[in-house]
Specification:
24 strands, five-stranded mixed sheet, Adenine-n6-DNA-methyltransferase TaqI, Chain A, domain 2, 441 residues, alpha+beta, single chain, 20% strand
Length: 441
């Protein structure tokens, strides 16, 4: 049985003659499957497991660092992942995250996936996996997924509903051409993201060398002394997060007032932060009226946002005045010269934050009181200023590269519905990475 959603019904009226409208299960080699659940004693070694963090953090799942879990031979056979598998978020703390799709690409070793994820395995004789990934990532695909998602405390989709959704399917050769055109964008985006990761690791390594291993300039002359956080150089202090700036816990303006929502101001949620040092765009935005309804929640440029409910410990920096929802605690810094140090310090405190948020409930929660009281090593101001001066050019280059990636994604996403609708013929669209870089840099 095929489910024709309202977004698809409008799209189907303009479907090219050689395209079909088929249920998703007609494009699969086997029924969809939920991921595996294993008790804690089976975690820590064995097979790499795709968790929700990887699903929301990466569109393409391949060689990323992941946690591991022990599997039996039967579990490996039933729950392994192959090149071309599509993964969907079965549940999400925010409605927009339900059904988020990622693609498995040439895994270097056996992968499996956790129970909150659905696996779909395309039949390559019928459907090109990359085409389906781009389809589900498009505005049309997201609208189709939204039509089957539940709106509860934890939003989600069911595999049975997913298999029944109707999808537009062009001939296989057209699918492959569309996937190839869009892959040119993603190739350049990935090269750019690789550069960002290298730059970020350069700045992080220096932070670790100076402020974790205490091998900063002149360290030979400074003895270590005891502190609540272990031995630290003499003259250094242990402070609380709130000593570095004002801690602001976000809030969602009333949904009953549509005038509070528009296009004027970023409204940050945790999915907007995943994999991003800098927050450049958000799915939801507030009108000026919405932002003015809670001005005490406005964050200045350069604030540090930390997710503290659900997925704890995601850290990003603001690039414009914005507000966040209540799942995020942010630090509006007293001094911009402390920004880079505190960013890496909080990013490296994920386990501590998770421990603070552990309360026996299913969903962890680090409230404002716990967050602002968390202890942080505070080096002397002159050392922090020296570190800032060394790495701020790196952060600036990361921001520039991030904006370029954003421009490429925007161009790709504008092209995507036109290719999917046949508005732009694949025969007329021939792009190289060099063309894209020149057009978007």
């Amino acid at each position: 049985m095929i489910t024709i959603s309202d977004p698809l019904r409008a799209f189907a009226e303009k479907l090219p003659l050689d395209w079909q409208l088929l249920p998703f299960n007609a494009m699969l080699s086997e029924p969809v499957r939920n991921g595996i659940y294993k008790k804690k004693e089976f975690h820590g070694k064995g097979t790499r497991v795709v968790n929700m963090g990887e699903l929301f953090g990466f569109d393409f799942i391949s060689a990323q660092e992941m946690k591991r879990v022990e599997l039996t031979a039967v579990e490996e056979r039933k729950s392994g992942l192959k090149d071309g598998d599509l993964l969907f978020a079965r549940r999400s703390l925010v409605f927009e995250g339900a059904g988020k799709c990622s693609l498995v690409v040439n895994p270097s070793e056996l992968l499996t996936f956790e129970s909150s994820i659905i696996r779909a395995r395309p039949n390559r004789q019928v459907a090109e996996p990359r085409f389906l990934f781009y389809l589900f990532s498009s505005p049309l695909g997201r609208a189709i997924i939204a039509s089957i998602a539940t709106r509860t405390a934890v939003s989600g989709i069911r595999g049975s509903d997913l298999m029944g959704v109707g999808l537009p399917l062009p001939p296989l050769t057209t699918q492959r051409r569309i996937a190839g055109i869009l892959s040119a964008y993603d190739e350049l985006i990935e090269n750019n993201q690789r550069r960002i990761r290298i730059l970020e690791e350069m700045a992080r390594s220096l932070c670790r060398e100076w402020f974790v291993h205490f091998r900063y300039p002149g360290h030979e002359e400074v003895p270590l002394v005891d502190s609540p956080l272990g031995p630290i150089p003499q003259g250094w202090e242990v402070k609380q997060v709130k000593d570095f700036g004002k801690v602001i816990t976000g809030k969602t303006p009333s949904k009953s007032n549509p005038a509070f929502y528009g296009e004027d101001n970023q409204f940050v949620k945790t999915p907007d932060m995943h994999g991003n040092m800098f927050i450049l765009d958000t799915v939801d935005r507030l009108s000026d009226a919405g932002a003015l309804s809670q001005t005490n929640k406005t964050l200045p440029v350069g604030s540090i946002c930390v997710s503290c409910i659900g997925t704890i410990g995601v850290v990003s920096l603001t690039t414009e005045e914005c507000q966040t929802n209540q799942q995020i605690n942010s630090v509006a810094l007293n001094s911009s010269e402390h920004r880079e140090y505190l960013y890496f310090c909080l990013q490296g405190s994920k386990q501590r934050l998770e421990n603070l948020g552990s309360n026996g409930a299913t969903m962890g929660n680090v409230n404002k009181g716990k967050f602002e009281a968390m202890e942080i090593i505070s080096p002397p101001s002159d050392l922090l200023i020296n570190y800032h001066r060394l790495v701020v050019p790196i952060f600036s280059e990361i921001l520039r590269a991030s904006r370029l990636s954003g421009n490429l994604r925007q161009a790709r996403d504008l092209l995507l519905p036109k290719l999917l609708s046949g508005q732009i013929s694949v025969q007329q669209c021939s792009l190289t990475s060099e063309d894209l870089y020149a057009a978007n840099s």
